[in-house]
Design goal:
By secondary structure, the protein is of the alpha+beta class. Among the domains are: 1-17 and 32-201, Tetratricopeptide repeat domain (Serine Threonine Protein Phosphatase 5, Tetratricopeptide repeat); 461-732, 4-Layer Sandwich (Phosphatase 2c, domain 1). It has helices at 2-11, 24-33, 38-51, 56-73, 76-93, 96-113, 116-132, 136-156, 160-179, 183-200, 203-219, 223-239, 243-259, 263-280, 283-299, 303-460, 534-554, 560-574, 681-691, 702-717; strands spanning 484-490, 498-506, 521-530, 588-596, 601-607, 611-614, 628-631, 650-653, 659-663, 671-672, 677-678, 726-732. It has a 5-stranded antiparallel sheet, covered by helices on one side. A 5-stranded antiparallel sheet has the order 2-3-4-5-8, with helices on one face. A hairpin with a 4-residue loop joins strand 10 and strand 11 (677-678). It is flat.
């Protein structure tokens, strides 16, 4: 688990080089010709970075020269990058004290530069190295500093890089807590990291995080959960073809089964992990697999195989130890040679800088003499050119005088022509005025026609003026015993593509009698948004109203989803839609509610549009979005569509005082406000909850809620333009 946390140190974006080329030999050749300037420092950093995984000795030589030259040039940005590189080199050597020293230097330079991102990264690096040096208090302190800074950066400008860095901090802090035995704290931070990696869908780190959680759960004696996380990591690693992660997960699972004395399963997963590790030449996994197999066969009383696998395990372990020892000796020798080389490079750079300064001095003298001579030549040329220009200008003036005389004669002729043209323009102006008056007359006729169409449309809409007595919308003629209603209807143009429709019907023969001994009254209300707005939308709205009257009033279809099914058939037949390419796609989105006014039982169905219900029974809770329930409609319109299944019939019961809202998308999609953005459904819900009768601290009527909604949307639009028809129907039970 410790190695997984250290990945954060190696990939930390505090050192963000964007190198693409791998042609290092040609760049080394180019280095010979470069001057002792910032470009040379950047090139040295580039070479050092790319040589770390290839030839770390060579990488350190380039890095030493980069640090020395950057300090002499006072090039702080390049110096910071070079120092971070040196810390990475010492990290690879395992010299964590030196690594910490260089990271502290990098932090100081980043603070001088005011580089917030770099400061956060340096804190994270220092925390990781302190963990390796077992300075756990300091490790937690620096990791927390890095975490706070990355969280602040992400709040100002959310990005995947910031979130990835926050998750890395969580992983590092978890590693420290696990090392000091605070397993619960470690688990909390691991879960936080896993949540972010899942949001980013970064599968390699999801696998790593789940394996770490599994290891920690095993230490906490919760093998069932540990097995769950390791199995999930195994399945995900197979899906993304990550063989190393698959091998790790198999070995972790085998280890859990061994502790549970399930030897056959231990052998199965250990052999699977071993097979993959041998293909990858992953010696640590090979060693662990053989060790698990030897233990499993031993505990299963198969001592021959146990001895065989233990012998292989011992040989591999000795081989790994020898490799590590050899590497440490080589690194110590390289460290001595590179420190000696560092002194030589520093002296050589000083000599080069002196030579460079002397050459610059000589160049300045030469260029000063050459510049003086050039200045004399330029002055002579200017004097000569001035004399020539004077003679030329004299000749030009004489010619221009002749031209002016000729132009005056032409102007006299043109004045006579203009007088003639003025009479013609006057006649054309009279013609244009006559055409303008004709166009205005046509415009008036068209506008009058549309206004007449509006009166026709208003005539077929329910006459709500008879149902809103005393501002409460109470009327047994349509709304039964409801607690109040309102209609907010704002067409974008003179006529509207939205429409609202309501009726009540007695369900004779289709429902049991009420407690009062008569058939229940059903209130059926709909709000629809037809394709387009203005005249085209109005035609569709007239069709919709006509079909609803036919389906509900004449055919007495009262089940909400069946009404929409029948309405879709009528629209498809009327528009002759066959689903062919290029044909018209007109139709409508709709929200249709059926309320039994005796029992308050409801049915609802929707095509694309939802239904909002605000439950007001808990009057101790004010202005809470949790009181608003959203019932979503089916994702298909009232028109021909690739999906033509039956609409869903939602059945529910409401309490007295609850409020239901049917609406089109015009209110939420309206652009406006200080930034010219959409109003959005979230803000729409908040307004409904704040002003809902029974939810607000000052009880409001439904009409008052309508006035507030209308005021809010008018202020949101401001001096802008209404972009779509707006319709909202509110019903209080």
């Amino acid at each position: 688990m410790k190695k997984t946390f250290l990945i954060f140190f190696l990939i930390f974006i505090n050192f963000c080089f964007c190198f693409a080329s791998n042609n290092l030999d040609s760049i080394e050749q180019k280095l010979i010709t470069l001057k002792l300037d910032t470009n040379r420092v950047n090139t040295l950093n580039y070479l050092s970075w790319n040589y770390i995984p290839i030839n770390i000795k060579k990488s350190k030589i380039f890095c030493i020269e980069a640090i020395s030259l950057a300090r002499q040039l006072n090039f702080k940005k390049g110096l910071a990058k070079a120092i971070i590189l040196m810390s990475s080199i010492y990290f690879e050597y395992g010299d964590y004290s030196k690594c910490l020293e260089y990271n502290l230097q990098a932090l100081k330079i980043r603070e001088e530069l005011g580089d917030i991102w770099g400061i956060a990264g340096a804190n994270g690096n220092i925390g990781t190295v302190c963990q390796l040096l077992k300075r756990y208090d300091k490790a937690i302190e620096y990791h927390q500093k890095a975490l706070i800074m990355f969280q602040t950066l992400n709040q100002k400008k959310p990005s995947e890089d910031n979130k990835f860095s926050i998750a890395g901090c969580y992983m590092s802090i978890a590693g420290v807590y696990q090392e000091i035995g605070k397993k619960n704290d470690a688990m909390k931070y691991l879960q936080d990291a896993l949540q972010i990696y899942n949001q980013l869908d970064y599968k390699p780190n999801i696998i790593s995080c789940m394996n770490n959680i599994g290891v920690l759960l095993h230490l906490m004696k919760d093998d069932n959960k540990a097995l769950y996380y390791h199995t999930a990591a195994l399945n995900l690693s197979v899906n993304i073809c990550d063989s190393k992660a698959e091998s790790d997960a198999c070995i972790n699972i085998a280890n859990i089964y061994l502790s549970d004395n399930k030897f056959n399963k231990t052998i199965k997963y250990a052999e699977r992990g071993l097979h993959i590790a041998e293909k990858l030449s992953a010696k640590e996994n090979i060693s662990m697999a053989y060790h698990l197999l030897s233990l499993a066969y031993s505990m299963n009383n198969d001592f021959r195989k146990a001895y065989k696998y233990f012998k292989i395990y011992s040989e591999i372990k000795d081989s790994i130890f020898n490799e590590v020892s050899s590497k440490q000796i080589t690194e110590m020798q390289t460290k001595y040679e590179t420190e000696k080389k560092e002194q030589q490079i520093t002296i050589l750079n000083k000599e080069k800088l002196l030579q460079f300064a002397e050459l610059n001095k000589q160049k300045i003298i030469i260029w000063t003499v050459v510049g003086g001579l050039l200045l004399i030549v330029i002055i002579a040329i200017i004097i000569f050119r001035s004399l020539r220009i004077t003679h030329r200008q004299k000749r030009i003036i004489e010619k221009q005088k002749q031209i002016v005389d000729y132009k005056n004669m032409q102007l006299n002729q043109q004045n006579e022509e203009i007088s003639t043209q003025r009479d013609e323009i006057s006649a054309q102006r009279d013609i244009v005025t006559e055409q303008k008056e004709h166009i205005e007359e046509i415009h008036k006729e068209v506008t009058d026609s549309i206004n007449y169409a509006r009166r026709i449309q208003e005539a077929v809409l329910p006459d709500l003026s008879l149902t809103l007595s005393n501002g409460e919308g109470k009327s047994p003629s349509l709304w039964g015993e409801l607690g109040g209603t309102f209609i907010l209807f704002k067409p974008k143009d003179i006529v509207s593509g939205d429409f609202y429709w309501a009726t009540q019907i007695t369900t004779r023969g289709h429902a049991p009698l009420t407690t009062r001994g008569h058939a229940p009254l059903l209130l059926i209300v709909a709000v629809a948004d037809c394709t387009g707005h203005g005249v085209p939308g109005a035609f569709m709205s007239m069709l919709g109203i006509s079909f609803l009257n036919e389906i509900v009033r004449k055919q007495e279809v009262t089940q909400a989803n069946q009404v929409l099914n029948e309405l879709r058939k009528e629209v498809i037949n009327a528009l002759q839609q066959r689903g062919k390419t290029g044909e018209q796609k007109d139709g409508m989105d709709i929200s249709l509610l059926v309320v039994n006014t005796e029992t308050n039982e409801c049915q609802w169905a929707g095509a694309n549009n939802p239904l909002y219900i605000i439950h007001t029974s808990d009057l101790t809770t004010f202005q809470k979005l949790s009181n608003l329930e959203e019932v979503k409609g089916d994702k298909m319109p009232i028109a021909i569509h690739p999906v033509m299944s039956d609409f869903t019939n939602h059945e529910f019961k409401v309490e007295k005082g609850d409020c239901l809202y049917l609406f089109s998308d015009g209110f939420a999609d309206q652009f406006g406000g200080p930034k010219g953005k959409k109003f959005m459904y979230k803000q729409f819900k908040e307004i409904l909850v704040q002003t809902c009768p029974g939810m607000s601290q000052q009880i409001k009527t439904m009409n008052e809620q309508k006035e507030i909604l209308e005021k809010v949307i008018n202020e949101w639009i401001g001096n802008g333009e209404q972009v779509d028809d707006i319709t909202i129907v509110g019903i209080k039970i």
